[in-house]
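Late entry, evening session. Most of the bench is empty. Finally got around to the prediction I had been postponing all week. Sequence below, unchanged from the version circulated by S.P.
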Amino acid sequence: MSSSKRQGPITATELMAQLAKDPEYQRRFREAEAVRQERARLLGVAEQPIVQDLSAVGIVVESVWDVVNTSESYPDALPVLMEHLERGGYPERIMERLGRALAVKSSVKYWTRLRQRFLESRDVGEETGAAVALAACAGKDQVDDLISLLSVEAKGDNRLFFVRPILRLGGDRGRDLVESLRDDPVFGKEATALLARRKPRRRDADQKEPDGSA
């Protein structure tokens, strides 16, 4: 009696077992992993000046990424991170990491300098990192600045980071602005998603008529 061939897709476990026996796949995997490790090594070498300066103020890490991922506060690290972000000259991924490491509330004291780095960014990594930092540290006093940054078309999708804090901090004005962005080709998807998670404003709820059900 002959066995019938299996129908339908294979499981992830079965696929991994097949790939483990595929010499061509394994060769490509080893090559890709070697490239990844070399890139990581080069980034590690490039960010050593930052790591050393952080160590000098008592922040002992192996990478700027360790600062980004920590749940502890690090006020002593902020001047170092800001200085290196302004200095520049690092690979794009490190420039972005510097900005993301500055994405804490207390970085608002560097608002003007972060804004300048966003507007005068030297690469995409710096632009993204500065945008993330601005969005994270903004308070109500910075809402006008965030709104003005939305109109800088040259900054493209990195302006999306500003929509959430504008909605969160801007009161009715911020909400009206975000609602006006629903059909915008750049901001529309983000604005619609954020508004969908917000409770209706009281005046909107009060205007709803009862459904008349018994």
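Two things to note before I forget:
The CA atoms of residues 140 and 169 lie 5 Å apart.
The chain has a mean pLDDT of 87.
Will write this up properly tomorrow.
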